[in-house]
Structure formats: structure tokens, C-alpha cells
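stage 2 :: seqdesign
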């Protein structure tokens, strides 16, 4: 799968109405009964074994997402210069991404166990994330265990030498926070 040179402009108008709709159209139709007249009934979902999944190559290049909130008069610009993802059958999940958030550089590397690990009750699925966000190193690690009785998750996240308020102000997302 390859996507190149895509720009997505999302906006909420001054009344808070978005110019987009994500999610389950059927759920949205329950909120809007008039739309149900145009929608065919959904097929019942079948239960069974989880599907086997592999991904040879997912590549995004030059993907731009712009969000503007007209009532707040604020916008956020997010760019993916390059994203490469591989999840071969039985192999580790590897994702490398670099780009810009509000014209500030970031780069991230994600490494996870094979996706097939998620189908077992005994073995936790482990992952690590390392990268750089606007010149500051970040690191995360975690695990997920898909137990039938009670799924488990654990996450550790490390960010060194960062002031969240100052970073949000530097990105232009908020103004007036004490740094």
C-alpha cells in the first residue's frame, strides 16, 4: 500500500460542525433516523478465529493533515514526510516515521513482536518506541496480553528535559501557559 502527496483539510466551523465524518456510519444513522431510510440493514457479525494478518509494505510520503477550529481561531498542521511499515507473517512489526508537527521536526521508530503473538493467551505482545520530538528524545515500551478472562496492558513512557506547557506553546497549540 502506497500513498503519496495527499492533503487532508479538516475544519470545525464557528458552530462546531465538522467538514468530515469518521467512524461507523450505521451508528451515526441511529442518531439521525432520516438517514436510515437510505441505508441497507447491516449483516450480522460472525464470530470465529482472529484473522491472520501480514503487511509486506505500507508507505506514506508527503502526507499533510491540517486542522482548523474556526471558533477558537486555532489550527494544527501535521506532516508525514515518510512512513514505512512492515508486518510480515511471523515477523516483527517495524514502523519508521518522520515528519513535522507545527513545522517542528519529529522522527519515531516503533518495533513490536509479531502480530500472531496477540492471538495467544500465554505470550504478551511487546513493543518499543523511540524517537525525537522537536529536539527532545522520547521513549516508550509496553506489552499487551490478549487473555480471554481479562486482557492486560502495561506502558512506560519517558520524555527527558521537557516542559509540557512550554512545548504546547512552542507548537502554537496553546497560548499563555506559564513555562
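stage 2 :: out
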Amino acid at each position: 500500500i502506497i500513498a503519496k502527496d495527499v492533503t487532508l483539510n479538516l475544519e470545525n466551523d464557528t458552530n462546531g460542525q465538522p467538514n468530515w465524518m469518521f467512524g461507523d456510519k450505521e451508528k451515526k444513522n441511529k442518531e439521525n433516523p432520516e438517514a436510515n431510510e437510505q441505508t441497507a440493514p447491516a449483516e450480522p457479525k460472525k464470530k470465529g478465529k482472529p484473522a491472520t494478518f501480514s503487511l509486506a509494505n505500507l508507505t506514506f510520503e508527503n502526507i499533510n493533515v491540517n486542522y482548523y477550529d474556526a471558533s477558537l481561531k486555532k489550527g494544527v498542521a501535521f506532516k508525514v514526510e515518510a512512513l514505512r511499515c512492515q508486518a510480515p507473517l511471523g515477523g516483527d512489526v517495524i514502523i519508521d516515521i518522520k515528519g513535522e508537527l507545527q513545522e517542528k521536526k519529529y522522527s519515531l521508530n516503533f518495533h513490536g513482536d509479531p502480530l500472531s503473538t496477540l492471538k495467544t493467551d500465554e505470550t504478551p505482545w511487546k513493543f518499543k518506541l523511540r524517537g525525537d520530538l522537536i529536539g527532545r528524545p522520547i521513549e516508550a515500551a509496553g506489552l499487551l496480553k490478549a487473555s480471554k478472562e481479562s486482557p492486560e496492558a502495561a506502558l512506560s513512557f519517558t520524555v527527558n528535559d521537557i516542559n509540557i506547557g512550554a512545548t504546547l506553546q512552542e507548537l502554537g497549540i496553546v497560548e499563555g501557559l506559564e513555562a
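stage 3 :: structure notes
- The longest helix spans residues 25-31.
- The chain has three helices and eight strands.
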